[in-house]
TrEMBL record:
It comes from the Bacteria. This is Pilus assembly protein CpaB. InterPro entries: Pilus_assmbl_Flp-typ_CpaB, RcpC_dom, SAF. Coiled coil: none annotated. NCBIfam families: pilus_cpaB. Residues 1-18 form the signal peptide. Transmembrane segments: none annotated. Keywords: Signal. Residues 31-93 form the SAF domain. It holds the Pfam family SAF.
Amino acid sequence: MGLLVLALLTGLAAAVYAAGWVARQGSIASNKVVVANVDIELGSRLNAQMLSVVDWPSGSLPPGTFATVQDLQDRVAKVGLLRGEAVLEGKLAPKGTQGGLSAVITSGKRAMTVRVNDVVGVAGFALPGNYVDVMVNAQQDKEKGEESRQISKTVLERVLVLAVAQEAGRDDTKPKVVSAVTLELSLEDSEKLDLARSVGTLSLVLRNQVDNQTVATAGITKNQLFGTKDIPTPVVMKVAAESKPSIPRARPMAMPAQPSQCVEVVQNANRVLSCF
């Protein structure tokens, strides 16, 4: 009998505790937040089928949330969103932006596409969201009196890959061998890249995503690669002949004419020699 009474009291205490816990949970303040109902790729235009509204605890509410789906109608995602992730203002393109790749280009930047192959495209590992350096191999212009030299030089550093072929998703890590890569560049860098691809062969160099260091190099020539010195072509210079100063020649001294005949004349005890 005593054990039965003890069991009843224990069950009653557990029921009271559970009821109190449920009451406390129900009293936690919450807000309505719009989240992604499916995985959303960057550049996608949002609609009601992609979104849903859930209760979110007010104490952990992130800034920039939306309370209704209507607030997000026709907005464009500039980053990829996972299912269940809150849709924030910072993850959306400005209002009025059309969908597509142009919506994810940073303000002040440009998108430029270059043709690549499995070697130039780093065996397909240059994926959207990665950073690459751009290297060009070309013939250097001739200097006066020198022969043209082949040179490889890094012309652009830390360039963001926006898309490969027609895909801009940044969640895939599998390599993709494609024929074209779209890069995000400043206007000045776009001009450099356009000139570089017209004068030589381009190569993409994959770099660490958190490496922000810029290293300026002078490039390398074939002679430097093999450790031989550049032998400049001998320059033949025409030097005008200088006029030598005239040195006056010494004139031969006139020798006195030798007299042909001499006569000695004695007059008043004086002797006079006359030559003629």
